[in-house]
Amino acid sequence: MAENIERVNCLIIGSGPAGYTAAIYAARANLKPVLYTGPEPGGQLMITTDVENYPGYADGIMGPQMMDDFKKQAERFGTDIRYAMISKVDFSGDVHKVWTDGGDELHADSVIISTGASAKWLGLESEKRLSTNGGGVSACAVCDGFFFKGQEVGIVGGGDTAAEEALYLSKLCPTVHMFVRRDAMRASKIMQERVKNAENIKVYWNTETEEILGEEEVTGVRVKNNKTGETTEIPVAGFFVAIGHKPNTDIFKDWLDMDDVGYLKTIPGTSKTNIEGVFASGDAQDKVYRQAVTAAGTGCMAALDAERYLAEKGIV
Ligand code: NDP
After folding, report:
1. 50 has pLDDT over 80
2. What's the pTM value of the predicted model, to 2 decimals?
3. Residues 115 and 253: beta-carbon distance below 8 Å
4. Residue 143 annotated to the active site
5. 59, exposed or middle or buried, with CB in 10 Å at 0-12, 13-18, 19+?
6. pLDDT tens digits along 221-254
7. Given a cut of 60, is residue 1 above it in pLDDT?
8. Residue 121: what pLDDT?
């Protein structure tokens, strides 16, 4: 083996609740885990506000604080945390080869995938232009909402993310125009109630976004009622997209079984993928529950499965 290729027992890819929980378990089992954070250290919870449903935090906790706690706990047991990204893998042999975005090659006896999921976009040209130039389209109200303090904003989506972000924006903005494409929201009952009780969130049912208006900066949004066919232009200064997520699994598509959206398939009741020694956890393999606590649970499963696998192979 070339000298510059590092060999690790247990490589963890991703740093959300799944990755850090896997790291805590793997480090305590003396697997000497190496964790690559990926492009968004801490994952989706870094862009959320209050987390009220994670057991153990009786008064709730801010998402970034919670992830810092997870990280510290993983570090306490000796996890080697690296702020870089794995950009290529080769799972063809007994030893799993991975490459970082800096070009380093590592060989891992076991790999735990916890790469999570990323925000989806509507796919409009105007959305792309006005999000990449900082013109006022964003997929993260908590990151960018403050820029629109005192101004009218729009948000598309009807899930828990959209509800949570609309509520966040309602504390900053005089009116939040919320566009829901059906006559019902997908969000949990409690979040729907909160949206309905917020006086300055105006919900537009059966409404689709046709175009985000403005050349350099958002000036408004054109929406269409899909029942009546009526289109309306609403002046807004900012537009938020909160329509769900796509699993971050593209680099595994040549090796691992996944569904048509890209969620990794695991053997039911385990974290095992179709490749021996490669385990999947968190949102990358879960399109049903997608909660911090379920991600953490599957991260724990992956570390325990990796530990047993390495022990059976006589590696640890
Ligand atoms: P979801 O997939 O749950 O919801 C996506 C929403 O966007 C749906 O209302 C969907 O409409 C709508 N949508 C999708 N595509 C389009 C489109 N092209 N145009 C307009 N609307 C569109 O995603 P979320 O990100 O909201 O939530 C993901 C998971 O995370 C859920 O399980 C949720 O419960 C959880 N979560 C929990 C939180 C918490 O507990 N604090 C906070 C945030 C998320 P339709 O219903 O018609 O498909």
Report:
1. no
2. 0.78
3. no
4. yes
5. exposed
6. 999 999 999 999 999 999 999 998 899 999 999 9
7. no
8. 94
Encoded tokens for 209: 């976004």
Mean pLDDT of the 115-141 span: 92
Q: Any idea which residue has 């949102």 for tokens?
A: 283
Predicted local confidence at residue 213, as pLDDT:
98
Is 224 exposed, middle or buried (CB count within 10 Å of its CB: 0-12, 13-18, 19+)?
middle
* Residue whose entry in the numeric block shows the structure tokens 């966040």: 168
Tell which one of 142, 181, 209 to mutate to probe ligand 1, the residue whose CB is within 8 A of the most ligand atoms. 181
Q: What's the 119 CA to ligand 1 centre distance in angstroms? A: 10
Averaged pLDDT, 150-163:
96
How much of the chain exceeds pLDDT 90, in percent? 88
Token pair, residue 239, equals 């537009």
Q: Ligand 1: distance of its center to the CA of 245 in Å? A: 8
Domains in the chain: ranges and CATH = 6-118+245-312 (3.50.50.60), 121-241 (3.50.50.60)
Secondary structure (DSSP) of 188-231: -HHHHHHHHH-TTEEEETTEEEEEEE-SSS--EEEEEETTT--E
Question: How confident is residue 266, by pLDDT bands cut at 50, 70 and 90?
Answer: very high
Cβ-in-10-Å burial (0-12, 13-18, 19+) of 141 comes to buried
- Active-site entry in 68, 143, 254, 259: 143
Residue recorded with tokens 């109630």: 193
**What confidence tier does 288 reach under pLDDT thresholds 50, 70, 90?**
confident
173 is catalytic: no
Pocket, ligand 1, Cβ cutoff 6 A: 53, 122, 156-162, 164, 181-182, 186, 188, 243-245, 290
- For residue 3, the model assigns a pLDDT of 60
Pocket test for ligand 1, best of 127, 186, 190, 194 (most atoms within 8 A of CB): 186
Mean pLDDT computed over 268-289: 96
Distance 301 CA to ligand 1 centre (A): 26
